[in-house]
Each structure stands twice: as structure tokens, then as C-alpha cells.
Amino acid sequence: MDAPEILSKLISLAEDRGASDLHLHMVNGVAQVAYRLDGLLTPFQAIPGDVGERILGRVKFLANLKTYQQSMPQDGRISGPFVSSRSDIRVATYPTVTGEKIVLRFFSEFKILELDELGFDQEVVALVKAFLDETTGLLLLTGPAGSGKTTTIYACLQYLVGRGGLHIITVEDPVERVVPGIMQTEVSDARGLNFAKASKHLLRQDPQVLVIGEIRDEETANIAVRAAFTGHLVISTFHAGSCKGVFERLFTMCEDRFSAVSAVGMTLNQRLLRRLCKGCSGSGCPQCLHTGYHGRVPVVEWVCVDDALREKIRTEGPSAVAPSYCLKKTAKTLVKNNITGESEYRRVFGHEIR
After folding, report:
1. Domain 3-106 has CATH 3.40.50.150
2. Residue whose C-alpha is closest to residue 260's, from 298, 233, 221
3. Rounded distance between C-alpha atoms, residue 127 and residue 105, angstroms
4. pLDDT of the chain along its 354 residues, tens only?
5. Where, residue-wise, is CATH 3.30.450.90 in the chain?
6. Do the Cβ atoms of 217 and 230 come closer than 8 Å?
7. Top-level CATH class of 115-349?
8. Phi first, then psi: what are they for 253, rounded to 5°?
9. Which of 56, 196, 300, 354 is the most exposed place for a label (fewest CB within 10 A)?
């Protein structure tokens, strides 16, 4: 097979298996192929050097990149029909000491999940809906990269659009999916448009709901707090690792702690655990590329901030924050019910089940 045909087959297999990324890495003259399945990089095959080089060249050509440039990173995009893909593909190249690496990220065209389809406990779904029915407040989602925060945000957007009549604006990096009925903006360092600058100017568009893809700095944190404190519904992600950590980090970013505590209405801390493959019960089969896992299930803990808790946080600090349920307790139940495995629990939480 020639390079274009091999590339199309690799992309087709990636989509059939539900991969989010396709990795091509030249190592010692051989192209190593791997898929990111359910959040984990899974080696697939090695392609001989000459063919591998042509495949990488083909990707760069389709993404309108400089095919001769291998010493500097490049970013581009491939239109899905060019490679018989169901979605457009984001392309990122990077030079390494063993050879160039290219990552292809698939922009899935599958429908956006509803809140009821996320796999959350019905209690937390009801609480999120209750928050979204309010007119003001700040919802902060936390968890490591790949824990499902963006999926949750899009489910929230779907719910808000369904309410009708709301002026909703998002600032994202990047815009993963276009949602009809809302105004979406993509940040761009090249244009000097970061989260803080975009958020500040978008507030002048008089939104009722503002979604900030991520709070990364003090300026953005203060804009989010001020917007929630002055009559807007605000949703954002925040790298903190726990519900308590959200307030610890927020307090380091916001000088006005009173406003920060007053603004936050709810925090969600979530993780994703891989499901045991139903086809092989975890033993490994072609459908799961012999990983034993296929698909993922969320675990989540949360804190709803009412007036009583706000007063405790003001007097006692973040130590007053105690989440409902517990990530590890929920995960242990999933292991017990053979929904996920002990090795997956250890991968996510870093220790044996106790």
C-alpha cells in the first residue's frame, strides 16, 4: 500500500475504535504508530522508515504545513473528506532527538451529550441543573487533563440552550465543537487574544452566561468572580485537584476573598476511569486493541456553596470545604461491581485499594 492509503486506514481504524488521537513518531528510522484510547496512549504498530517518512510528509502536505521543516513545531488542520474521515483533524508536529513526531487530534462530530447522559449520579445531575437554572453564580470544574471537564461543560451548554432566550458566550482553547445558538470564541496567542482579554471584552457584549474554557491567571480569575458577582452565570475549569483545592487556589488569585466566596455556587471535581471491555471482560480482544478496556465512566465529588458554608469558609478558610461523596469511595464501588479494574484504580489514584 502507498502512504495515502495507509494513512487513511490508520485514521479509519482510529475512528472505529473511538480514539481521540493518532500519534506518528519517527524513532531510529521507524515510524511508531499509537492511538490514544480512553485517555491512554496505546502502541499499535511500527512502519518501516521510508514508508513512515512518506506518511508524515503526506500529513504535513494535507495540513498545509512546510513538508521540509522538521526542526520547528508546526500546527495545521486537515479537512475530513481529504482522508475519508468523519471529522476535521488538528495536526501538531514537534521535533525530537529521534525524529519528528506528529499528533493528529480528531474533532468528533458525534452529538454533544446531555447532562443525563454523562453517567453522573442523578443527585449531582439535579444539583447541576438547579445551578444552571439560576441567573448568577460561578460553577468551577476541576480535575487533571483528560478528566472529562470539557464534556461536562458542553453538556451544561446544551442544557442552557434548551432553556431558550439566553445570550451565551464562550471563550475556548480550542473550540472543540460548534453549538448552534451560542456565540463561541477561540483564543489565539498569535493574535494576542488570551482568556483574560477575550473575557473582558465579551462582557461588553452583555451575555447572561459566560463560559471561560480555563482560568489560568489572576486576571481571568478576577474577571470570572466579578462577572458572577455582578449578575452573570459563569462556568469555567480550574486546575486544583479537589473541591477544597479550588478555594485554596482561588484565594491566592483573588485579593477580594469575600467576593470570591460569594461568587462560587458549586464546584465539581471529576475523574474518568476506563470501563472493562464488555467483549472480553478485561482479558483483551481486537475491539479494545487488547487493552482489556473500552469506554470510560466518570466519578465525581462536589460542593454546593450555600450561605452557611460561605460563612464557614470566611472564618475557617478552605478547610471548611468537605465534598459530598468521595471520588475514591465511588471508584472502589465500580471495581467491586466489575465496571472497572483494580489496575485502573491504581493508575488514576496511585495506590492500592484500601
Report:
1. no
2. 221
3. 33
4. 799 999 999 999 999 888 999 999 999 899 999 999 999 999 999 999 899 999 999 999 999 999 999 999 999 999 888 898 888 899 999 999 999 999 999 876 557 899 999 999 999 999 999 999 999 999 999 999 889 999 999 999 999 999 999 999 999 988 888 899 999 999 987 788 999 999 989 899 999 999 999 999 999 999 999 999 999 999 999 999 899 999 999 999 998 999 999 999 999 999 999 999 999 999 999 889 899 999 999 999 999 999 999 999 999 999 999 998 889 999 999 999 999 999 999 999 987 776
5. 3-106
6. no
7. alpha beta
8. -100, -25
9. 354
Place of cell 475514591: 328
